[in-house]
């Protein structure tokens, strides 16, 4: 790979300087790039020509978008060139070698010598999505457990505060209606809310009936004497 730059002195062109870098050296550096010991890396120039694609032997002069052809079986590489680095919040994805990869990209740029390269790192999608899915699964279980716990507490509280007193009141009315009610018994009032007021009203009602019956009994005894 040749990197070259024009050389000026006091505004006058002196010549062109260049550096030849052995392709194997660049390939070794790119091949060593991994994410958690997996993935692939590529290096392309400003025109999209592939300089190195790790672990892959590609024809010289091949451009990145040509990997999307049926000959190489890729998908999504063209969009990497069409979209600038960092244009989207989400990581772009490509299909390569029968797998889906997330792509991290970074520019390699310099003005002297002039370099406009792009370095990309392919990361297996499951390496990122796996932990996210696991975290989402456990978070969902925790939320479901909290909802069930709240429902259980709510039902228990409703049973104790509302349902049980109303059922007790209904049973007492039913006993009185059938002539089996013990007018000496009173409901136990546990609160000052509407349920408690209803129980208190029932006790007052039963007490009034008990007094009326007692009065009638006393008058009947007097008349009988």
Write structural notes for this entry.
A hairpin with a 2-residue loop joins strand 6 (99-111) and strand 7. The protein has helices at residues 23-31, 77-82, 125-177, 194-224, and strands at residues 2-9, 12-20, 40-44, 50-53, 93-96, 99-111, 114-124. The strands form 2 sheets. The chain has a 5-stranded antiparallel β-sheet with strand order 4-3-7-6-5. The model has no long low-confidence stretch (mean pLDDT 75). By secondary structure, it is an alpha+beta fold.
Q: Key features?
A:
about 45% helix; rod-shaped; 5-stranded antiparallel β-sheet; alpha+beta; about 220 residues; two-stranded antiparallel sheet
Would you report the number of β strands? 7
Structural class: alpha+beta
Task: Provide the gyration radius in Å.
Answer: 43 Å
Helix content: 40-55%
Calculate the terminal CA-CA distance, rounded to whole Å. 132 Å
**Succession of helices and strands:** EEHEEHEEEHH
Q: Specify the biggest β-sheet.
A: 5 strands, antiparallel
**Number of distinct helices:** 4
Flag low-confidence runs: none
Q: How would you describe the shape?
A: rod-shaped
Could you give a quick summary of the protein structure above?
The chain has about 220 residues and is α+β, with helices and mostly antiparallel strands. It has helices spanning about 25-30, 75-80, 125-175, 195-225; strands at about 1-10, 10-20, 40-45, 50-55, 95, 100-110, 115-125.
SSE blueprint:
Layout (H helix, E strand, L loop, with lengths): L1 E8 L2 E9 L2 H9 L8 E5 L5 E4 L23 H6 L10 E4 L2 E13 L2 E11 H53 L16 H31 L1
Antiparallel strand pairs: 1-2, 3-4, 3-7, 5-6, 6-7
Helix pairs in contact: 3-4
């Amino acid at each position: 790979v040749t990197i070259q730059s024009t050389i000026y002195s006091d505004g006058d062109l002196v010549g062109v300087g260049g550096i030849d870098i052995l392709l194997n050296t660049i390939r070794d550096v790119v091949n060593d790039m991994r994410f958690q010991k997996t993935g692939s890396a590529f290096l392309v120039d400003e025109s999209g020509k592939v300089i190195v694609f790790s672990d892959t032997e590609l024809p010289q002069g091949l451009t990145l978008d040509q990997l999307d052809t049926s000959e190489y079986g890729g998908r999504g590489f063209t969009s990497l060139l069409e979209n600038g680095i960092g244009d989207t919040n989400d990581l772009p994805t490509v299909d390569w070698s029968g797998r889906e990869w997330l792509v991290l990209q970074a520019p390699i740029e310099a003005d002297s010598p002039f370099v406009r390269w792009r370095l990309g790192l392919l990361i297996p999608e499951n390496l990122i999505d796996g932990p996210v899915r696991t975290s989402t699964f456990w978070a969902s279980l925790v939320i479901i457990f909290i909802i069930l716990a709240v429902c259980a507490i709510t039902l228990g509280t409703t049973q104790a505060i509302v349902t049980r007193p109303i059922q007790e009141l209904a049973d007492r009315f039913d006993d009185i209606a059938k002539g089996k009610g013990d007018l000496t018994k009173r409901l136990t009032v546990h609160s000052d809310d509407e349920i408690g007021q209803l129980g208190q009203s029932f006790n007052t009602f039963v007490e009034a009936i008990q007094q009326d019956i007692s009065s009638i009994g006393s008058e009947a005894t007097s008349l009988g004497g």
